[in-house]
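Follow-up to my earlier ticket, as requested here are the two runs.
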Amino acid sequence: MANFNTHLIVSAAASGAAATSLLGAGVAKPQDAAIYFSLGTIGGLLPDLDSDNSSILKSFFNILGIILAFSIVFTQVGKFSLAELFILWLGAYSLVRYGASALFTRLTTHRGIFHSIPAALFFWMTVTLLTAQFLKFTPVQSWLAGFFIFLGYLIHLILDEIFSVDLANQKIKRSFGSAFKLFDTRNVPGTLILYLLVALGLFLAPDYKVFLDLIKNKTLLTSLKSNLLPSGRWFIK
């Protein structure tokens, strides 16, 4: 499979190109493009959460622990002393960083359910819902934010499959087909749960028709074409 640097570079390059295209087409503002680029890059690293020795896994639960711990503490300000709030924060952080992380490691296997199309769709729905609910993104912004996570995720899966083919020795490695899959036969319940969560996400998410209208909009394609090459004939003598 592809290594960390390959996933990072390719997902960043593809996300940057896609975000720049939206910026050039007038669909995204500079700050939006920066967010989309960042999300696409992150999406390119997410599938490796199921690797027990992954630095991504440790960083993910570190950040998640900090965010959740502060979220809990903020709701308790005024009810407890600062010392008690610190203990509460430390307990909540440790529970997520070490407890949830250890449980996640035990329940997941590398190239398992997280290396699949339903997992990519799940993160798309999750980011769309979170950005709409907590960051107050518009429906179009939320769907694009989720799409870029999905884009990076998809690139990761495709790269893993590409690196499963050994062109030099003209053979296919045993890992081929274990990343870009619609269903994980080793984890049927997990796969079904992911698909159910995606369906639930579609029900709770902002109107997806605005995203479809954006994709089908001929004005977007025309704008992309008009901004693809320099205007005028300055490059011709």
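Run two:
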Amino acid sequence: MAMPSAPADRYWLPDDIWAFPDDGVRRECIDGVLLVTPSPSGEHQDVVREFLLDLGIWLRAHPAAIVRASPSDVRLTPDSVVQPDVYVFADRAALKEGKVLLAIEVLSPGTARYDRGLKRRFYQRQRVGEYWIVDLEAQLVERWRPEDERPEVLGETLTWQPPGADGPLTIDLPTLFGRSLGT
């Protein structure tokens, strides 16, 4: 489960994270808080795969950005490092500058609190274009934009268009969840 795993008086930085052994444990730090996440479930990985495939296929036809998946460090500020399940950026220069167009986190029982709280606020402060929180149990997506006070909750169709794209990506959510979860 994702949770702070260090004393509250310690302020964690990316160099602290990278000093850990390569043990397969996902570590992130946001605003000095260390988040530790165990390996995701199979269902989690299946949904990540489906979003990655849909985005990758669409971006191949509409080359407006690059998509990647974790494990992969993203530095949006000098003192924070995150690993969104899936993320999109315009080009390598934009990623080096900490400019992410889309970040996707798939909820797990131990991560929901941080994905909806600490991470959401962080992504909004850093002006990530959109932040999607994927709820496997409810089979819906919460879409957050930097100025939002409440999410847009989507259960049928999710549409996204990055700057410079000639048209939108449309994801049929029941189909995506059906492919990945067998529902």
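The only thing I checked on run two: The longest strand covers residues 130-135. Let me know what else you need.
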